[in-house]
């Protein structure tokens, strides 16, 4: 069961500083289920404290100003994590890591990354040699359902704003009122969501870029466009979008999904990897495939393409893979972007996953490197479909060594990285053994 989020306040006598800071002086506990991010060693009292003595106002201002990005922005694929598993990118850290709340207070090393359905919360201990008077002790990595996260933030904001009412209308009143208005307006909410997925703060995306993506949503599907936006994030988002549009106009490979109707899509209330495993098992069962590796002929037949298509290198570099629905709902134009056989097999399986799980209103089925729930489901499906975890464990036995991973990759026809990621996702090896894609 995924944890809820709560921010608990115990008001204190005013600290020195601006009226808003003094009025909201408090001992604050930030909890995610049983995990307490504010548990710390207090150097002055030489004791362990469950709460942090800070002001709630900076925390509230930071959450309100970062709300859209925390709620919707996935970890950009261009960012790699440091050894402490936090993104080494200034723009990202300002909007996603709690120490950016600032105002001179000592905040927990707490970071947030959204996949759309849940918020991943990464908490790290204070550095061992820290000279600060509060040394945070907790270290955890949990996923909070997005709705639970919203409820926790909303409750906290209500407490802080009521505390501030005696001061009149503050900056926080204005900022949070604007966030709530945008959340309740369908068009504004859609625009803010796309901005966040592009890596922009609210109302800061180039107007022509935002308009282009909103128009694209009406043509190819809102959910599909939400997946394309992170691909365009970076220094030249307009150029990236032009490359995506150019990709969609290419001839591609004609395919047609050939999966029996008995292959059912699981309920969306469980995590993506669980839905993916259930879906992969369901498809294998409906096809009578058992648990053996799939050869190229069998895999290509599911998409009505030639086995040679799984070995062909694309003529141009693409930012993503894409399937475009054409004519009959089952007919697809497949635009692969991977360049070697194991990766193209994996991509083919991802096409199948997205076809089976995406909304029917999506005319485009994007295959990207982003850490969204939809892309996580695709990757987890492809891993389980091509390499069932039970079969992988049986093949490896007790040999969880680099040479064994290489042999398994050859046996199942996927990359060694996919083998390691599959094992890590099932907690059979450490995530530190996986070199990339650390948040999926």
| N-to-C order of helices and strands | EHEEEEEHHEEEEHHHHHHEHHEEHEHHHH
The whole-angstrom Rg is 24 Å
As an assembly, this protein is: single chain
- Average of per-residue pLDDT values: 88
- Helices, by number, come to 16
From the N-terminal CA to the C-terminal CA, the straight-line distance is 18 Å
> Biggest β-sheet, characterized?
4 strands, antiparallel
Number of domains: 3
Number of strands: 14
Written overview of the protein:
There is one protein chain. The chain is of the alpha+beta class and 440 residues long. It folds into 3 domains: 5-168, no CATH class; 178-248, no CATH class; 253-433, no CATH class. It contains 16 helices and 14 strands. A hairpin with a 4-residue loop joins strand 4 (40-42) and strand 5 (47-49). The protein is globular, with a radius of gyration of 24 Å. The two termini are 18 Å apart.
Descriptors for this entry?
15% strand, 44% helix, four-stranded antiparallel beta sheet, disordered C terminus, alpha+beta, 16 helices, 440 residues
């Amino acid at each position: 069961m995924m944890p809820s989020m709560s921010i608990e306040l115990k008001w204190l006598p005013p600290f020195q500083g601006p009226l808003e800071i003094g009025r909201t002086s408090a001992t604050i506990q930030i909890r995610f289920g049983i995990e307490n991010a504010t548990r710390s060693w207090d150097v002055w009292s030489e004791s362990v404290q469950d709460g942090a003595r800070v002001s709630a106002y900076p925390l509230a201002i930071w959450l309100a100003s970062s709300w859209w990005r925390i709620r919707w922005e996935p970890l950009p694929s261009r960012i790699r994590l440091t050894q402490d598993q936090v993104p080494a990118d200034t723009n990202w850290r300002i909007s996603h890591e709690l120490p950016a709340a600032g105002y001179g207070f000592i905040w927990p090393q707490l970071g947030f990354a959204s996949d759309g359905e849940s918020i991943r919360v990464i908490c790290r201990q204070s550095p061992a040699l820290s000279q600060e008077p509060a040394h945070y002790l907790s270290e955890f990595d949990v996923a909070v359902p997005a709705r639970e996260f919203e409820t926790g933030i909303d409750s906290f904001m209500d407490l802080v704003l009521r505390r501030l009412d005696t001061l009149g209308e503050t900056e926080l009143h204005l900022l949070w009122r604007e966030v709530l208005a945008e959340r309740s307006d369908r068009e504004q909410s859609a625009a803010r969501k796309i901005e966040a997925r592009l890596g922009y703060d609210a109302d800061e995306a180039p107007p022509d870029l935002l308009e282009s993506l909103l128009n694209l949503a009406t043509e190819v599907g809102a959910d599909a466009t939400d997946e394309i936006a992170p691909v365009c994030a970076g220094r030249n988002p307009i150029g990236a979008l032009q490359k995506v549009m150019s990709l969609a106009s290419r001839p591609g490979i004609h395919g047609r999904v050939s999966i029996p109707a008995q292959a059912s899509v699981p309920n969306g209330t469980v995590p993506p990897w669980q839905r993916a495993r259930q879906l992969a098992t369901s498809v294998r069962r409906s096809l009578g495939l058992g648990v053996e590796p799939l050869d190229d002929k069998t895999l290509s037949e599911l998409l009505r393409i030639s086995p040679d298509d799984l070995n062909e290198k694309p003529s141009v570099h693409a930012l993503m893979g894409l399937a475009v629905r054409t004519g009959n709902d089952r007919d697809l134009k497949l635009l692969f972007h991977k360049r070697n056989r194991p990766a193209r097999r994996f991509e083919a399986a991802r096409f199948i996953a997205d076809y089976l799980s995406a909304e029917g209103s999506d005319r485009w089925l994007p295959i990207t490197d982003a850490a969204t729930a939809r892309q996580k489901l695709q990757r987890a499906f492809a891993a389980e479909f091509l390499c069932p975890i039970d079969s992988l464990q049986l093949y490896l036995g007790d040999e969880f060594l680099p040479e064994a991973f290489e042999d398994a990759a050859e046996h199942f026809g996927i990359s060694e990285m996919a083998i390691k990621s599959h094992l890590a996702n099932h907690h059979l090896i450490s995530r530190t053994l996986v070199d990339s894609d650390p948040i999926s």
